[in-house]
User: Fold this.
Amino acid sequence: MTSTDQERWSRVKGRLRAEVGEDVFLSWFARMDLEGVESETARLSVPTRFLKSWIQSHYHERVLSCWQAEQCSVRRIELTVRSAARPLPPKPKPAGHDNGAYDARVLKFDGLDGRSLSSQLNGGLESLGGSPLDPRLTFETFVVGRSNTLAHAAAKEVAAARRGDQVMFNPLYVHAGVGLGKTHLLQAVTWAGNAAGVRRVLYLTAEKFMYGFVSALKTQTALAFKETLRAIDVLVIDDMQFLQGKSTQAEFCHTLNALIDSGRQVVIASDRPPTDLESLDDRVRSRLAGGLVVEMGPLGEELRLQILKSRATAVRSMYPCFEVPESVLLFIAQAITHNGRDLEGALNRLLAHSKLTGQPVTLELAEREVRDLIRPQEPKRVKIEDIQRVVARQYNVSRSDLLSSRRTANVVRPRQVAMYLAKTLTLRSLPEIGRRFGGRDHTTVLHAVRKIEHLVGNDTSLADEIELLKRQLQE
Assistant:
């Protein structure tokens, strides 16, 4: 390989960096090396099979076009793996080490098999961040409906995989509102993965991850903590929105990269999509968004009724005398629309009343007992993407125009209107809105909001237009 080839490769990487952005480049191309250029073929290498597969699937044409811009004779890219597998880290020494007590915990962690992991998680491993599992939260008790079919199918696919299988969805990122089944699905993945006995699966809340990392720093055992986590076959992280702190986020990003690059599986749940996690570092958001992102929608009435029937059947297995008429279940399914936890709470109240008083469950009883759980219908949650789409259609411009740097009048006004609506109809901060409108500064957003507020007070035609847009977005 000549020095000219290396110089060209440096320029190709510069083109890639400019086209895909710094975050994506660091995630996928930073460890790609040039092996040589022969005839019409540029031979490149990466350290893992996963990187090879991902780049071939998503960036092959872009890499080739960047090469051809530097060397038009190159017609083909050949991508190979320098090292097909990442070796497992050595287990720490159990005795004679300065941190013997911690090492004993790590040894127990590293030696887990599928049959003992669940019990260990609820015991000694909590000091390492392992969160306890609820034995009720399995795939068998998860009720599938239209709003969660894709998330359920992806989770089952992940749980059924074996060590060495090609990883399809990595990371698998599930997001939904409170009480819609995220934790149930993640714990089901953990139970099923452990039951198979061939992979080590660890379930953590973001809070437990933070606690484990900070504790390891304090006891000067951070290296053992990191290596232990990176030896896991499947890492499951719940409540990602609570991950805070620059050092903790940086360590999570390193762990995430190490696991994914070595072909291990990562499953994550949050109450919002990766792009809306404003407190997270851009690199973490970019890596999370690079996998399969699935939303679990609100529970429809039919699904709520199925959940109630399933829970009532489970309760009757322990309390055979507990009978709930179909009309009562239907009333609860229609009245309680917020989330699954409220449904279970309503059923528990009826069970308590039935057991303590011995009276049968009636519709009148249900109406009285669950009155405080019936909440007013919440307004539709408006997304910035929806605002951009509706505004672009209203003013006959494209969404890319709104995100561009164009300053023509037919683009500036719609862009300002869209920013104004984003500020008034969502909870997003000014910096976040600016980032979602082509990386603009928050002062630009503030100027747009104040400009439209002033115009609305003086221009009834514009005020009517904005009210129309609001109605379309909230329907």
